[in-house]
């Protein structure tokens, strides 16, 4: 599928707008969860190759925190929310208000892992809900799982079958922070949506791509 030639700036703007709707829903949920005013921004949305996806995660050997789920319904596929360890630490500290916690080395706190998993669930659930509302597709997500490992090892789980038939993923950047904080305190990560081959076409057909 030579999708890059068919995707226009308009389609990418639509993907970003879906991300912005998600950001509003997720920010509201996180604000209720933390008792703080949380903002979420979506600076870019784009189509990338699997190699570029690994580069965005810091390279095959880079250790990251990832929340993963499978998508079923009118469109199927895999979705990851990936954060560098330092960014994951910052996010969990904001939610748990425990500044002593760190993902820098194991063993990791069960409470922190559970918090990270639930955060990923909220964020990815908000995105999929926004995507479903925008496209009219019925989407169902599995219970999310969490892993701390090399980016290549984590992503290979969702790429093994796909790599034989397609080489593209949808990536949505995300930046979360408390209101009135500077960018240095912002938590930055990526959503990676890897639709199964037939579902890639289904999603983009709803956006006007043949």
Question: Which terms summarize this structure?
Answer:
210 residues, alpha+beta, 8 strands
Outline the secondary-structure elements:
Blueprint: H1 3-6, H2 9-34, E1 38-41, E2 45-49, H3 50-56, E3 63-73, E4 77-84, H4 85-96, H5 110-135, E5 139-141, E6 145-150, H6 151-159, E7 168-178, E8 187-195, H7 197-206
Antiparallel strand pairs: 1-7, 2-7, 3-4, 3-5, 3-6, 4-8, 7-8
Q: How would you describe the overall organization of this protein?
A:
The protein is of the alpha+beta class and 210 residues long. Helix content is 45%, strand content 27%. The chain is built from seven helices and eight strands. Strands 1, 2, 3, 4, 5, 6, 7 and 8 form an eight-stranded antiparallel beta sheet that branches. α2 crosses α5. The longest helix is centred in the first third of the chain and has 26 residues. It starts with a helix and ends with a helix. The model has no long low-confidence stretch (mean pLDDT 83).
